[in-house]
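User: Hey, quick favor. My workstation is busy. Could you predict this chain's structure for me?
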Amino acid sequence: MKKITLHVSGMHCPSCPMLIEGELTDLQNITEAKASLKLNQVEITGEFGDKTEEEIADSLSEVVTKHGYKLSVEKQNHSAAWGEFWKAVPIALAFIGFFVLLQKLGIVNLITSSDVTYGSAFLIGLVASVSSCMAVVGGLVLSVSANFAKEGDKVRPQILFHVGRLVSFFVLGGVIGALGSAFQLSVTGTMILGILVGLILVILGVNLLDVFPWVKKLQPALPSFIGNHVQGLKLLNHTLTPMLLGLATFFLPCGFTQAMQIQALSSENFMTGALIMFSFALGTLPVLAILSFSSLGVHSKVKSSIFFKTAGLVVIFFGLLNLMNSLVAAGIISPVFSL
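Assistant: No problem, here it is.
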Protein backbone atom coordinates (compact mmCIF):
# COMPACT_ATOMS: atom_id res chain seq x y z
CA MET A 1 0.00 0.00 0.00
CA LYS A 2 1.18 3.48 -0.82
CA LYS A 3 -0.15 6.91 0.07
CA ILE A 4 0.45 9.84 -2.29
CA THR A 5 -0.82 13.42 -2.47
CA LEU A 6 -1.67 14.88 -5.87
CA HIS A 7 -2.66 18.38 -6.88
CA VAL A 8 -6.08 18.85 -8.49
CA SER A 9 -7.05 21.50 -11.01
CA GLY A 10 -10.64 22.22 -12.03
CA MET A 11 -12.42 22.09 -8.64
CA HIS A 12 -14.88 24.95 -8.02
CA CYS A 13 -17.51 23.85 -5.48
CA PRO A 14 -18.02 21.62 -2.40
CA SER A 15 -19.37 18.80 -4.58
CA CYS A 16 -16.09 18.50 -6.47
CA PRO A 17 -14.17 16.69 -3.69
CA MET A 18 -17.05 14.24 -3.27
CA LEU A 19 -17.14 13.57 -7.02
CA ILE A 20 -13.39 13.00 -7.20
CA GLU A 21 -13.39 10.75 -4.12
CA GLY A 22 -16.28 8.71 -5.52
CA GLU A 23 -14.62 8.19 -8.90
CA LEU A 24 -11.26 7.20 -7.41
CA THR A 25 -12.55 4.86 -4.69
CA ASP A 26 -14.54 2.97 -7.31
CA LEU A 27 -11.19 1.74 -8.67
CA GLN A 28 -10.15 -1.68 -7.40
CA ASN A 29 -6.61 -0.67 -6.47
CA ILE A 30 -7.71 2.44 -4.48
CA THR A 31 -8.69 1.92 -0.84
CA GLU A 32 -9.14 5.56 0.19
CA ALA A 33 -9.25 9.02 -1.36
CA LYS A 34 -9.61 12.29 0.52
CA ALA A 35 -9.95 15.45 -1.56
CA SER A 36 -9.71 19.03 -0.30
CA LEU A 37 -11.31 21.98 -2.06
CA LYS A 38 -9.35 24.41 0.10
CA LEU A 39 -5.96 22.88 -0.74
CA ASN A 40 -6.82 21.72 -4.27
CA GLN A 41 -5.33 18.34 -3.40
CA VAL A 42 -6.35 14.72 -3.07
CA GLU A 43 -4.65 12.20 -0.78
CA ILE A 44 -4.85 8.69 -2.24
CA THR A 45 -4.08 5.33 -0.64
CA GLY A 46 -3.78 2.27 -2.84
CA GLU A 47 -1.68 -0.34 -4.60
CA PHE A 48 0.24 1.16 -7.50
CA GLY A 49 2.96 -1.42 -8.09
CA ASP A 50 6.21 0.09 -9.29
CA LYS A 51 4.60 3.10 -10.99
CA THR A 52 6.14 6.52 -10.42
CA GLU A 53 4.01 9.33 -8.99
CA GLU A 54 3.89 10.93 -12.44
CA GLU A 55 2.56 7.70 -13.96
CA ILE A 56 0.01 7.35 -11.18
CA ALA A 57 -1.17 10.94 -11.69
CA ASP A 58 -1.53 10.39 -15.44
CA SER A 59 -3.50 7.15 -15.07
CA LEU A 60 -5.83 8.53 -12.40
CA SER A 61 -6.38 11.74 -14.38
CA GLU A 62 -7.99 9.62 -17.09
CA VAL A 63 -10.67 8.65 -14.55
CA VAL A 64 -11.62 12.21 -13.51
CA THR A 65 -10.87 14.16 -16.68
CA LYS A 66 -14.42 13.54 -17.97
CA HIS A 67 -15.60 15.85 -15.17
CA GLY A 68 -13.03 18.53 -15.99
CA TYR A 69 -10.40 17.70 -13.37
CA LYS A 70 -6.69 17.01 -13.78
CA LEU A 71 -4.31 15.39 -11.31
CA SER A 72 -0.62 16.24 -11.20
CA VAL A 73 2.41 15.81 -8.98
CA GLU A 74 3.35 19.46 -9.28
CA LYS A 75 0.95 22.30 -8.57
CA GLN A 76 -0.42 23.74 -11.81
CA ASN A 77 -0.50 27.48 -12.39
CA HIS A 78 -4.07 28.72 -12.69
CA SER A 79 -5.07 30.08 -16.10
CA ALA A 80 -8.15 32.30 -16.28
CA ALA A 81 -8.48 32.06 -20.09
CA TRP A 82 -9.87 35.59 -20.38
CA GLY A 83 -9.99 35.33 -24.18
CA GLU A 84 -12.85 32.83 -23.96
CA PHE A 85 -15.15 35.58 -22.67
CA TRP A 86 -15.36 36.90 -26.23
CA LYS A 87 -17.47 33.83 -27.01
CA ALA A 88 -19.10 33.32 -23.61
CA VAL A 89 -20.46 36.87 -23.15
CA PRO A 90 -22.52 37.04 -26.41
CA ILE A 91 -24.01 33.59 -25.74
CA ALA A 92 -24.89 34.53 -22.15
CA LEU A 93 -26.41 37.84 -23.26
CA ALA A 94 -28.53 36.05 -25.87
CA PHE A 95 -29.70 33.57 -23.22
CA ILE A 96 -30.49 36.33 -20.73
CA GLY A 97 -32.19 38.44 -23.41
CA PHE A 98 -34.40 35.51 -24.36
CA PHE A 99 -35.67 35.05 -20.82
CA VAL A 100 -36.08 38.77 -20.25
CA LEU A 101 -38.34 38.65 -23.32
CA LEU A 102 -40.29 35.78 -21.74
CA GLN A 103 -40.62 37.89 -18.61
CA LYS A 104 -41.93 40.83 -20.61
CA LEU A 105 -44.48 38.51 -22.20
CA GLY A 106 -45.52 37.31 -18.74
CA ILE A 107 -44.39 33.72 -19.36
CA VAL A 108 -41.59 33.76 -16.79
CA ASN A 109 -41.52 36.21 -13.90
CA LEU A 110 -37.83 36.75 -13.25
CA ILE A 111 -38.37 39.48 -10.70
CA THR A 112 -41.44 40.95 -9.08
CA SER A 113 -42.26 42.41 -5.71
CA SER A 114 -44.52 39.56 -4.60
CA ASP A 115 -44.54 36.50 -6.86
CA VAL A 116 -42.17 33.62 -6.23
CA THR A 117 -40.09 32.87 -9.30
CA TYR A 118 -40.84 29.26 -10.15
CA GLY A 119 -39.62 29.91 -13.69
CA SER A 120 -36.22 31.10 -12.54
CA ALA A 121 -35.98 28.13 -10.13
CA PHE A 122 -36.52 25.84 -13.13
CA LEU A 123 -33.88 27.70 -15.16
CA ILE A 124 -31.37 27.56 -12.31
CA GLY A 125 -32.04 23.82 -12.21
CA LEU A 126 -31.18 23.59 -15.91
CA VAL A 127 -27.84 25.31 -15.29
CA ALA A 128 -27.18 23.24 -12.18
CA SER A 129 -27.80 19.99 -14.07
CA VAL A 130 -24.52 20.36 -15.96
CA SER A 131 -22.47 21.43 -12.94
CA SER A 132 -20.37 19.21 -10.72
CA CYS A 133 -23.25 19.27 -8.20
CA MET A 134 -25.46 17.29 -10.56
CA ALA A 135 -22.51 15.29 -11.84
CA VAL A 136 -22.46 13.77 -8.36
CA VAL A 137 -26.16 12.97 -8.67
CA GLY A 138 -25.59 11.53 -12.14
CA GLY A 139 -22.77 9.38 -10.82
CA LEU A 140 -25.00 8.06 -8.05
CA VAL A 141 -27.83 7.08 -10.37
CA LEU A 142 -25.41 5.40 -12.77
CA SER A 143 -23.77 3.47 -9.94
CA VAL A 144 -27.01 2.16 -8.47
CA SER A 145 -28.35 1.41 -11.96
CA ALA A 146 -25.22 -0.62 -12.74
CA ASN A 147 -25.79 -2.74 -9.63
CA PHE A 148 -29.40 -3.53 -10.64
CA ALA A 149 -28.46 -4.01 -14.31
CA LYS A 150 -26.38 -7.03 -13.29
CA GLU A 151 -29.68 -8.66 -12.31
CA GLY A 152 -31.35 -7.65 -15.58
CA ASP A 153 -33.28 -4.68 -14.15
CA LYS A 154 -32.15 -1.65 -16.17
CA VAL A 155 -35.13 0.74 -16.36
CA ARG A 156 -37.14 0.47 -13.15
CA PRO A 157 -34.35 1.62 -10.78
CA GLN A 158 -33.80 4.77 -12.81
CA ILE A 159 -37.52 5.57 -12.90
CA LEU A 160 -37.71 5.06 -9.13
CA PHE A 161 -34.70 7.33 -8.64
CA HIS A 162 -36.16 10.23 -10.61
CA VAL A 163 -39.65 9.83 -9.15
CA GLY A 164 -38.20 9.66 -5.65
CA ARG A 165 -36.15 12.76 -6.29
CA LEU A 166 -39.07 14.84 -7.61
CA VAL A 167 -41.43 13.71 -4.84
CA SER A 168 -38.89 14.27 -2.08
CA PHE A 169 -37.95 17.73 -3.34
CA PHE A 170 -41.65 18.65 -3.39
CA VAL A 171 -42.36 17.29 0.10
CA LEU A 172 -39.15 18.46 1.78
CA GLY A 173 -39.40 21.83 0.05
CA GLY A 174 -42.86 22.15 1.54
CA VAL A 175 -41.55 21.22 4.98
CA ILE A 176 -38.90 23.95 4.72
CA GLY A 177 -41.55 26.45 3.61
CA ALA A 178 -43.72 25.45 6.57
CA LEU A 179 -40.77 25.92 8.92
CA GLY A 180 -40.38 29.44 7.58
CA SER A 181 -44.03 30.04 8.37
CA ALA A 182 -43.55 28.71 11.90
CA PHE A 183 -40.71 31.15 12.49
CA GLN A 184 -42.88 34.00 11.11
CA LEU A 185 -40.02 35.82 9.45
CA SER A 186 -40.18 39.58 9.49
CA VAL A 187 -39.81 41.66 6.34
CA THR A 188 -36.20 42.23 7.32
CA GLY A 189 -35.64 38.51 7.89
CA THR A 190 -37.14 37.63 4.52
CA MET A 191 -34.99 40.28 2.85
CA ILE A 192 -31.84 38.90 4.50
CA LEU A 193 -32.64 35.36 3.32
CA GLY A 194 -33.28 36.65 -0.20
CA ILE A 195 -29.98 38.51 -0.20
CA LEU A 196 -28.27 35.34 1.04
CA VAL A 197 -29.72 33.37 -1.88
CA GLY A 198 -28.50 36.03 -4.29
CA LEU A 199 -25.00 36.05 -2.79
CA ILE A 200 -24.74 32.25 -2.97
CA LEU A 201 -25.76 32.31 -6.64
CA VAL A 202 -23.26 35.09 -7.41
CA ILE A 203 -20.48 33.11 -5.71
CA LEU A 204 -21.52 29.97 -7.64
CA GLY A 205 -21.46 31.96 -10.88
CA VAL A 206 -18.04 33.46 -10.22
CA ASN A 207 -16.71 29.98 -9.41
CA LEU A 208 -18.02 28.71 -12.74
CA LEU A 209 -16.13 31.52 -14.50
CA ASP A 210 -12.92 30.04 -13.05
CA VAL A 211 -11.07 33.36 -12.94
CA PHE A 212 -10.76 33.96 -9.19
CA PRO A 213 -9.80 30.65 -7.48
CA TRP A 214 -10.03 32.14 -3.98
CA VAL A 215 -13.79 32.73 -4.32
CA LYS A 216 -14.58 29.02 -3.98
CA LYS A 217 -13.50 29.25 -0.34
CA LEU A 218 -16.44 31.60 0.29
CA GLN A 219 -19.06 29.09 -0.81
CA PRO A 220 -21.03 27.57 2.10
CA ALA A 221 -21.37 23.81 2.29
CA LEU A 222 -23.02 21.16 4.41
CA PRO A 223 -20.70 18.95 6.50
CA SER A 224 -18.87 16.48 4.28
CA PHE A 225 -20.05 13.46 6.31
CA ILE A 226 -23.61 14.04 5.06
CA GLY A 227 -22.51 13.66 1.46
CA ASN A 228 -20.40 10.63 2.36
CA HIS A 229 -23.44 8.90 3.88
CA VAL A 230 -25.43 9.65 0.71
CA GLN A 231 -22.64 8.12 -1.36
CA GLY A 232 -22.76 5.02 0.83
CA LEU A 233 -26.40 4.41 -0.08
CA LYS A 234 -25.43 3.40 -3.62
CA LEU A 235 -23.89 0.21 -2.21
CA LEU A 236 -27.27 -1.00 -0.91
CA ASN A 237 -29.07 -3.46 -3.14
CA HIS A 238 -32.69 -3.19 -2.01
CA THR A 239 -35.73 -2.71 -4.24
CA LEU A 240 -36.38 0.77 -2.85
CA THR A 241 -32.71 1.86 -2.81
CA PRO A 242 -33.03 4.01 -5.99
CA MET A 243 -35.99 5.91 -4.54
CA LEU A 244 -34.18 6.37 -1.21
CA LEU A 245 -31.12 7.63 -3.08
CA GLY A 246 -33.27 10.11 -5.00
CA LEU A 247 -34.61 11.41 -1.71
CA ALA A 248 -31.12 11.64 -0.22
CA THR A 249 -29.87 13.93 -3.03
CA PHE A 250 -31.84 16.71 -1.34
CA PHE A 251 -29.05 16.79 1.26
CA LEU A 252 -26.03 16.78 -1.06
CA PRO A 253 -23.61 19.75 -0.66
CA CYS A 254 -24.75 21.53 -3.81
CA GLY A 255 -24.76 25.32 -3.69
CA PHE A 256 -27.60 25.57 -6.20
CA THR A 257 -29.79 23.28 -4.09
CA GLN A 258 -28.93 25.16 -0.90
CA ALA A 259 -29.82 28.49 -2.53
CA MET A 260 -33.24 27.14 -3.52
CA GLN A 261 -33.74 25.68 -0.03
CA ILE A 262 -33.18 29.11 1.50
CA GLN A 263 -35.61 30.53 -1.06
CA ALA A 264 -38.18 27.94 0.00
CA LEU A 265 -37.62 28.83 3.67
CA SER A 266 -38.21 32.52 2.98
CA SER A 267 -41.51 31.72 1.19
CA GLU A 268 -43.09 30.88 4.60
CA ASN A 269 -45.63 28.61 2.92
CA PHE A 270 -45.76 24.82 2.46
CA MET A 271 -47.09 24.82 -1.10
CA THR A 272 -44.87 27.68 -2.28
CA GLY A 273 -41.76 26.08 -0.81
CA ALA A 274 -42.75 22.73 -2.32
CA LEU A 275 -43.22 24.23 -5.79
CA ILE A 276 -39.90 26.11 -5.63
CA MET A 277 -37.96 22.92 -4.90
CA PHE A 278 -40.06 20.88 -7.34
CA SER A 279 -39.43 23.44 -10.11
CA PHE A 280 -35.70 23.33 -9.41
CA ALA A 281 -35.65 19.49 -9.45
CA LEU A 282 -37.72 19.50 -12.64
CA GLY A 283 -35.12 21.77 -14.25
CA THR A 284 -32.38 19.25 -13.49
CA LEU A 285 -34.44 16.32 -14.80
CA PRO A 286 -33.79 16.53 -18.60
CA VAL A 287 -30.00 16.23 -18.40
CA LEU A 288 -30.10 13.69 -15.56
CA ALA A 289 -32.65 11.59 -17.45
CA ILE A 290 -30.55 11.63 -20.62
CA LEU A 291 -27.51 10.67 -18.57
CA SER A 292 -29.23 7.80 -16.77
CA PHE A 293 -31.22 6.37 -19.69
CA SER A 294 -28.39 6.37 -22.21
CA SER A 295 -24.68 5.73 -22.51
CA LEU A 296 -24.05 9.35 -23.47
CA GLY A 297 -21.34 11.09 -21.47
CA VAL A 298 -23.45 14.22 -21.08
CA HIS A 299 -21.23 15.85 -18.49
CA SER A 300 -18.04 15.10 -20.39
CA LYS A 301 -19.47 16.49 -23.63
CA VAL A 302 -20.69 19.77 -22.16
CA LYS A 303 -17.66 20.20 -19.93
CA SER A 304 -15.79 23.00 -21.65
CA SER A 305 -14.33 26.21 -20.36
CA ILE A 306 -16.47 28.38 -22.66
CA PHE A 307 -19.64 26.55 -21.64
CA PHE A 308 -19.00 27.06 -17.95
CA LYS A 309 -18.06 30.72 -18.39
CA THR A 310 -21.39 31.18 -20.18
CA ALA A 311 -23.25 29.32 -17.42
CA GLY A 312 -21.41 31.36 -14.79
CA LEU A 313 -22.52 34.65 -16.32
CA VAL A 314 -26.13 33.44 -16.43
CA VAL A 315 -26.02 32.30 -12.78
CA ILE A 316 -24.55 35.67 -11.75
CA PHE A 317 -27.45 37.31 -13.58
CA PHE A 318 -29.97 35.26 -11.58
CA GLY A 319 -28.09 36.02 -8.38
CA LEU A 320 -28.20 39.75 -8.99
CA LEU A 321 -31.90 39.51 -9.86
CA ASN A 322 -32.54 37.76 -6.58
CA LEU A 323 -30.66 40.47 -4.70
CA MET A 324 -32.78 43.13 -6.40
CA ASN A 325 -35.94 41.09 -5.79
CA SER A 326 -35.23 41.13 -2.05
CA LEU A 327 -34.75 44.90 -2.07
CA VAL A 328 -37.96 45.32 -4.09
CA ALA A 329 -39.92 43.17 -1.62
CA ALA A 330 -38.62 45.31 1.22
CA GLY A 331 -39.71 48.47 -0.60
CA ILE A 332 -36.17 49.80 -0.82
CA ILE A 333 -36.11 49.98 -4.64
CA SER A 334 -38.70 49.86 -7.42
CA PRO A 335 -39.04 46.75 -9.63
CA VAL A 336 -36.40 46.64 -12.36
CA PHE A 337 -38.76 44.81 -14.72
CA SER A 338 -42.43 45.57 -15.05
CA LEU A 339 -45.09 43.80 -17.09
